Amino acid sequence: MNTANQYLKAIYLVQEIEDGPASTGAVAEMLDVSPASANEMIGKLESDGLCNHEKYKGVDLTDEGIVRARDALQNYCIIERFLVEVLDVEDFRTEAQQLESVIDETVAERLDTIIDRQPQCPDCFDAEDDVCALLELEADAAD
């Protein structure tokens, strides 16, 4: 089950990839849900003032939605980096996706004290590759 923060993060990333409003289909695909499910959650996010959805144009995050999406993305990056750098988890993307809905901000902050998070986080996240770009650089350097 995807949380509101996961939807906000997905909308934010799709907006980066599409360089404009996020299409509902792309958000649904990123979260591996049906377009109907995505539309339902986007409607809830819109009623909470976190995004604006215009049929056939797509979804834009409001300023508050962007803040929440970036916070969610930063927490996701922390989880990814912890899984790779501390636990050496091979399938870290799958694990991070499963953990992001159950690890709250307090736990993420505590994990952050263990990893060496870079100041550019969450801008270090590569939306198209769906991974922290810094992890990719570290993996490339290890080859």
Topology of helices and strands:
Layout: H1 4-18, H2 24-31, H3 35-47, E1 51-54, E2 58-61, H4 63-86, H5 92-99, H6 105-112, E3 125-126, E4 131-132, H7 133-142
Antiparallel strand pairs: 1-2, 3-4
Helix pairs in contact: 1-2, 1-4, 2-3, 4-5, 4-6
Could you characterize the architecture of this molecule?
InterPro entries: DtxR_MntR_Metal-Reg, Fe_dep_repressor, Fe_dep_repressor_sf, HTH_DTXR, Iron_dep_repressor, WH-like_DNA-bd_sf, WH_DNA-bd_sf. With 143 residues, this protein is mainly α. It has helices at residues 4-18, 24-31, 35-47, 63-86, 92-99, 105-112, 133-142, and strands at 51-54, 58-61, 125-126, 131-132. The longest helix is centred in the middle third of the chain and has 24 residues, at 63-86. The radius of gyration is 15 Å and the shape is elongated. Mean pLDDT is 88; it is low at 137-143.
